[in-house]
Design a protein that fits this description.
By secondary structure, the chain is mainly α. The protein contains 11 helices and 2 strands. One of its GO terms (molecular function) is thromboxane receptor activity.
Amino acid sequence: MTDTVLTIACEAGVNCTVLAQQPGATVVSPLLLCLTGVIGQVWALNYLHRRSKQQNRTVFYVMLSTLLWTDLIGKLTTTPAAILAYVHGHWLGGKEACNLHGFTMMTIGLVTHCMVSAMAVERYIGIRHGYYYSKHVTTSRARLLLLGIWLFGVLLCAMPLFGVGQYALQYPGSWCFVNTHVLWDESPVQHIVFTNLYGSIHVLCIVTIVYCNFAVIGTLIRTRMTRLREPMNSQHLYSNRSYRQRELEIQMVLVLVVITVVFIVSWLPLDLRIFLNQVWPHKSRADHYPDIVAIRLASLNQIIDPWAYIICRKLFFSNTGRRLLCFIQGRGWSKVSREASSLQVRV
């Protein structure tokens, strides 16, 4: 049985659920975020499919396309309820609508964290443990992993429907999420445990992403220094790996790094609010302002992800992009230009 919270703590005489009375609360924000997000996601998915239809799908391609689809699904399923709330001036549908919206918001957030984390681990294994990667990491197993991530997200985020955890209407009354305002001395133990479990998984994913990316970047730097110090040995080291394969790997890493930076900047504030709101309970409207800033930053992630991919792809095909790849690999530009003239590298 659900125990959904539809009230928002505010100072006396102030109603924090009437959208028309909240500073900065306007329907323009969700509409603009939704339109720019959907346009970018559809464009990126089309670009990704069109660029890759002539070659076998790579594991990274499968994960990246699934991430973009998840962003698109998130925009299409979470925005309508917010728009309706802004249009009518208050939340519509009561607890049932809040349960559905909270479940959707939580699922998309958790699945996104796990997917970006899986992409980071995939690149970590691919760059640092190439033999194991070539033998054990396949697109079919990647699809099973992504399906498992979705099933895990759905099952965990549905727990409040069975009394473990709690959905709550969030300021300014236009969205629902896990109750981040549980009080250690008042709230039921299962709600406190669930909220902190959900937040801890998010933080664990971010730690994994940061570690894997730093490890991969460190490996690329060491490889480049080896090529510069010992050109003959490095030539032998890469004798079984084509220029195209090396450049493709670096492109994947650069795309992942950009997505990771955007992801952390967008999601970390909301992830931190899950814990900070328990330490400093909200007692006034001003206390809620960081929450709305955090959720809008998280919404920007679904917008920037596809555009980041598109910009990276355009950059890779430019002279500037090829010079960057040349610098990372420690190769001469003229040699790379000759090798690349007959290749069209695509993620």
